[in-house]
Amino acid sequence: MPRITFITSAGAHHEVESRSGITLMEAARDNGVPGIVADCGGACSCSTCHVYVNAEWSTRLPPAESAETGMLELAWEPDPARSRLTCQIIVTDDMDGLVVQVPERQI
After folding, report:
1. 3 state SS of 98
2. 10 Å Cβ neighbour count for 40?
3. What are phi and psi for residue 56, nearest 5 degrees?
4. Which of 19, 48, 68, 70 has a CA between 20 and 30 Å from the CA of residue 79?
């Protein structure tokens, strides 16, 4: 199972094991990661599961599609190079070691 580290804005590390095939949002929610609100439940109709992907991983993930990039415009302090919605990232075995940072707040 891939291990993914979520770092909160306060600096707390939450390492979770996730099965492949679910979204990064589901992995966070199922493991009680603080700061991933996921108001829309993964429908890509809000930006409350926004994270910043560590730079070393940003090019290793599949690129964001237009629906996601549109929703990211509504996110708290989006970073064009690193912001992603966790509901749009499907966990794969290749993501073992992925590190993402949860923003200070979600909108």
Report:
1. coil
2. 16
3. -65, -20
4. 19
- Within 10-100, residue ranges assigned H as helices are 24-30, 55-58, 66-72
Q: What is the pLDDT at residue 107?
A: 87
- Arithmetic mean of pLDDT over the chain: 96
> Alpha-carbon distance 29 to 57, whole Å?
21
Strand order in the sheet with 3-7: 13-17, 3-7, 99-101, 50-53, 83-85
Alpha-carbon span 107 to 98, nearest angstrom? 24
Judged by average pLDDT, the poorest of 12-16, 39-43, 48-52, 97-101 is 39-43
Q: How far is the C-alpha of 70 from the C-alpha of 16, rounded, in Å?
A: 28
